[in-house]
Specification:
The complex is a heterotrimer of chains A (346), B (324) and C (336). With 346 residues, chain A is an alpha/beta fold. Chain A has 12 helices and 12 strands. Chain B is mainly alpha-helical and 324 residues long. Chain B has one domain: MetI-like fold (Orthogonal Bundle), CATH 1.10.3720.10. Chain C is mainly alpha-helical and 336 residues long. Chain C folds into 2 domains: 72 residues, no CATH class; 237 residues, MetI-like fold. The chains are: A alpha/beta (346), B mainly alpha (324), C mainly alpha (336). Chains A and C meet through helix 2 and helix 4 of A and helix 10 and helix 11 of C.
Chain lengths: 346, 324, 336
């Protein structure tokens, strides 16, 4: 039950974080174990943005929490490796890991209101990261915080420093969270659905802040999202996840131009398009993630897949190079939708 | 949010939880009977495997059985001074011996064990009567406030809030003072007055939740009058949390009764023994025979603990939040 | 913030108004009526008639109510008939107050320093042995009558092992100087440290007995509240920032988890008075609770009246203070 068919060539000096065969299992006494993440591998290099895409519940957030060492200790099993700059993060103990969190690797969460401490001023919440990792004194750290808030586009930062989360707008809260994440100039940033809770116009602004960051400072960015619009605007490479496994992995251009996995296809088909080549209804993917079956002995997507045949229910597909021979396009499917075939079999 | 508010909110939240529990039931017309059954059935399935509940239930059932069959179980009657001949100035409380395992109850030389067993009956009566009286008062006030709303609601709830703001024992003592001569009834009334605001608030909150629920709206849309809606639809569905609370209140009633007896507010006539009263009287012998205080107190603690365990687990079982 | 304070003040005044009505009604319905309330049951008929006249009991009720209010505001409640015959009831209250305040402060400190850490660690190790054990302990704490615990403590620590004094506030042979009537404080002020220490020894047992119920309740609230907060996103954010355990615990977990605890402490003040009546009786501790119990058994209505009114007033004031404290520690209330 290994997903090791995919072994990307190691590009020396290119990869900052290299995740290999990451497996996360939940379970406890008396409960069946549940594989939330199943053999996920990917790389991200400096200045590069990769996307982890999928519906909620597909394991993308768990992947990021496992890399950060933030999964609750009890009832979880994490296996595989996540090599960051030569060190396997998964082997570090809590103390060593907490030295790196916020300094080398930072994370931005989905809901900015609940992710900010309601009874501590914004400024303190930004400054505490620098006090912890850079040994700054409080006054110094507050000074730096003001500059940071300014940099992420919060107007009147001196005043906002002293304000509390409930006094800020949703967009400003997310900017404040980004400021916290950027405080120690991390080399890797993980953004977990950073725009989901925001208005569309604010979403664009936040994405712009992140894009500038990657371009200007060469930070590596892992973008976790279910929103293909975000992917289109930001990511260099895209990993589509389903039920804990990567089902398709390719460059942004490839994914949008030639989605080959029926699931990816479905995700794209459920976005309204203005150019309207496919006049008619949007294509919803039938069913939900909850309908999936374990990857053992079959394709987890089979119950929802329009292309599914007997083999899909009997044999688990491996992540393999694209059958048409396009480099760096990987696929986990018995019946990919190849160019020229119709997707829906209507 | 302020403290007094919080005390109220806690009660209101309980009401909401249970209201939500019965609002699960889809069929509007039949909610009163089928809803109750399925809710109780599902709660029972969970409770059956809950050791905390089972311990509480066992203690409670044992206590009630002892209270019912007390005259049969007690080895002697509670009045005769069997050990009177052993009372001496140096040792006023005869100790345990053949036939009298716990010894005498004091200088009167009566059998302590028999009086403890017989005492369970009075204790149960005081606890149950006080809780029932509190429940009745609370239901009347809560129904008034919940069914009528408007200024009736405001006036009733203001009064209830003020009663909640008084320390409970102080309220009980104030009420007890109004009786010329203390008796068992003083105790019952004083304790029940303290419970009234709790029940009233709980019931009102739960009825308000019912008023907005679909089946009441449906009944109202069908032109059912206010009286029938209140008594046939809202009240039965609102009683759940109130009855669960009653289990917990029984525990506090028994403890409060003991406290009041201890302070001398209880029944001074000890021909029908009661644990709180026995505990109060035991003070006189505390230096020579602390066991006179120990036994009734231990009985009170065990019984109160049993009711508390049962009430807490009942509440948890009926709380939709923890039902998953 | 100002509106919040004003609204709370208004609420407190309203509660006091309804309370005064209730107290007035109570006074009028006492067996024997207000005359007995002032003179006691043993007064002669002539005295009664005179008192009826001076009290103006033939006036209309609203007038009587206003007179009652006027008396209450001036601390004019009559003379004690049972607790300390001949003493003015209101001065009796002030005389007894320091003892109860001292006892309550000790009890609440004991409850806080034990319940909050225990609640925190029980939540941290949710489902573990410490958690289960302390939950059971808190359930027992609620079920054990205060006075029984008092007896047990007294029996073992005073009678069996002779470690601590069984009754009173201070050993009589000390002849300590009185300044504030807070005995521990007095000893510190006059540098009679042995007097302070003696007063503390007298406080330990009653304070522990009195602390059980607040302990149980504060423990449960702390535990539930910490459990809630530990599941909050902002705690995960704090961890993602790599903050030290100390900062996460203090600034992110406890500062949030303490908010409901603070309000609970306010509510416990009412419970403390209930407990004080029982504890002070057990330990013959000369405070307000002891006075209340005696006033009841001796039907000392003037003293009862003062005590009930002042207890209610104290409760309202303490809760008002807690509300204001709450506004200070919770920015969501403060900056609205």
């Amino acid at each position: 039950m290994s997903a090791a068919a995919y072994e990307p060539e190691v590009r020396a000096g290119d990869s900052l974080l290299s995740v290999r065969d990451l497996v996360v299992e939940f379970g406890g006494k008396g409960r069946p174990t549940f594989r939330a993440v199943d053999g996920v591998s990917f790389d991200v290099g400096p200045g590069q943005t990769i996307g982890l895409v999928g519906e909620s519940g597909c394991g993308k957030s768990v992947t990021s929490l496992a890399i950060m060492g933030l999964l609750p200790a009890r009832g979880n099993k994490v296996a595989g490796s996540a090599t960051f700059d030569g060190t396997d993060l998964l082997t570090l103990d809590q103390r060593e890991m907490s030295d790196r969190r916020g300094r080398d690797i930072a994370m931005i969460f989905q809901d900015p209101l609940s992710s900010l401490n309601p009874v501590v001023p914004i400024g303190v919440q930004v400054a505490e990261v620098m006090q912890r990792h850079q040994g700054l004194k409080k006054a110094q750290a507050m000074q730096e915080s003001r500059l940071l808030l300014d940099r992420v586009g919060i107007p009147d930062p001196a005043r906002r420093l002293k304000e509390y989360p409930h006094q800020l707008s949703g967009g400003m809260r997310q900017r404040a969270l980004i400021a916290m994440a950027l405080a120690c100039k991390p080399r890797l940033l993980i953004a977990d659905e950073p725009t989901t809770a925001l208005d569309v116009t604010i979403q664009a602004q936040i994405l712009e802040v992140l894009r500038e960051l990657v371009v200007d400072s060469g930070t590596a960015l892992i973008m976790i999202t279910h929103d293909l619009g975000v992917v289109a605007g930001l990511c260099d490479e895209v990993n589509v996840m389903y039920a804990g496994r990567i089902v398709e992995s390719a460059s942004r251009h490839e994914i949008f131009a030639r989605p080959e996995h029926p699931y990816t296809h479905g995700l794209l088909g459920s976005i309204p398009r203005l150019d309207g080549t496919r006049a008619g209804a949007l294509h919803a993917i039938p069913g939900s993630v909850a309908d999936n079956i374990p990857w053992t002995g079959g394709c987890a997507f089979a119950p929802r897949c329009t292309n599914a045949t007997a083999i899909c229910r009997e044999q688990s597909p491996a992540l393999e190079a694209d059958p048409t021979g396009i480099p760096d396009h990987l696929l986990r499917c018995h019946h990919p939708i190849l160019p020229g075939t119709d997707s829906t079999h209507e | 949010m302020n403290p007094m508010q919080r005390k109220k909110d806690r009660i209101d939240k309980l009401a909401e939880q249970a209201a939500g529990a019965s609002a699960d039931v889809p069929d509007a017309g039949k909610v009163a009977d089928t809803g109750g059954v399925s809710l109780i059935a599902s709660a029972w399935r969970r409770l059956r495997r809950n050791p905390v509940f089972l311990v509480g239930l066992a203690v409670t059932v044992l206590f009630v059985l002892i209270a019912i069959f007390a005259p049969l179980l007690a080895p002697h009657n509670g009045q005769t001074g069997y050990l009177l001949n052993q009372v001496t100035p140096n040792d006023p409380v005869p100790g345990g011996q053949d036939g009298f395992p716990l010894g005498a109850d004091g200088q009167t030389g009566r059998d302590l064990l028999s009086r403890l067993i017989l005492g369970s009956r009075q204790t149960l009566i005081v606890g149950v009567c006080a809780t029932l009286a509190g429940l009745a008062g609370g239901v009347v006030l809560g129904t008034l406030a919940g069914a009528f709303g408007g200024w009736v609601d405001t006036v009733v709830m203001r009064l209830v809030d003020v009663m909640l703001s008084l320390p409970s024992l102080l309220l009980a003592i104030s009420v007890a003072t109004l009786f010329g001569r203390p008796s068992q009834w003083t105790l019952i009334v004083a304790i029940s007055v303290v419970q009234v605001p709790i029940f009233a608030r709980l019931l009102r909150g739960s009825m308000l939740a019912q008023r907005a629920s679909d089946h009441v709206l449906a009944a109202r849309a069908l032109g059912v009058k206010r009286g029938p809606i209140t008594f046939r639809h809202m009240l039965p569905n609102s009683l759940g949390p109130v009855l669960v609370q009653a289990t917990l209140v029984l525990a506090t009633s028994i403890i409060d009764a003991a406290a009041l007896s201890f302070l001398g507010l209880g029944n001074p006539d000890d021909s029908s023994p009661e644990w709180g009263q026995m505990l109060g009287k035991a003070q006189d012998y505390f230096d020579v025979a602390p066991r006179l205080a120990f036994w009734p107190a231990a009985c009170i603690v065990v019984v109160a603990f049993g009711f508390t365990l049962m009430g807490e687990s009942l509440r948890e079982a009926l709380d939709p939040k923890t039902r998953r | 913030m100002l509106r919040y304070i004003l609204r709370r003040l208004l609420q407190a005044v309203l509660v006091m108004f309804v309370l005064s009505l209730l107290l007035f009604a109570w006074l009028r319905s006492l067996p024997g009526g207000p005359v007995d309330a002032m003179l006691g049951e043993r007064a002669t008929p002539e005295n009664r008639a005179a008192m009826r006249k001076t009290l103006g009991l033939d006036d209309p009720l609203p007038v009587q109510y206003l007179r009652f209010l006027d008396n209450a505001v001036h601390g004019n409640f009559g003379t004690s008939t049972g607790v300390q015959s001949g003493t003015d009831a209101f001065s009796l209250f002030w005389q007894r107050l320091p003892a109860t305040v001292e006892l309550s402060v000790f009890a609440i400190i004991i409850a806080l320093v034990t319940a909050i850490p225990l609640g925190y660690f029980a939540a941290k190790r949710h489902g573990g042995l410490l958690d289960t054990g302390s939950v059971v302990l808190s359930l027992i704490g609620v079920a054990v009558p205060v006075f029984f615990l008092g007896f047990v403590l007294k029996y073992f620590f005073s009678i069996e092992w002779n470690l601590l004094p069984p009754t009173g506030r201070q050993s009589a042979d000390l002849n300590a100087t009185r300044v504030t009537n807070f005995y521990v404080l007095d000893g510190l002020l006059t540098r009679e440290y042995d007097a302070s220490w003696d007063a503390i020894k007298h406080l330990i047992l009653p304070a522990i007995a009195l602390a059980t119920i607040p302990f149980a309740i504060i423990f449960r609230i702390t535990r539930a509240s910490v459990l809630d907060v530990l599941g909050e996103d902002y705690v995960r954010t704090a961890e993602a920032k790599g903050l030290s355990r100390r900062v996460i615990r203090g600034r992110h977990v406890l500062r949030n988890a303490m908010l409901p605890v603070v309000t609970t402490i306010g509510l416990q003040v009412g419970g403390l008075l209930t407990g004080a009546v029982l504890t002070e009786t057990v330990f013959a501790f000369p405070g307000l609770g002891d006075a209340l119990a005696t006033a009841f058994t001796t039907r000392d209505y003037p003293v009862l009246q003062v005590l009930i009114l002042m207890a209610a007033l104290g409760y309202v004031i303490v809760n008002l203070l807690v509300d204001l404290a709450y506004a200070v520690i919770d920015p969501r209330v403060r900056t609205r």
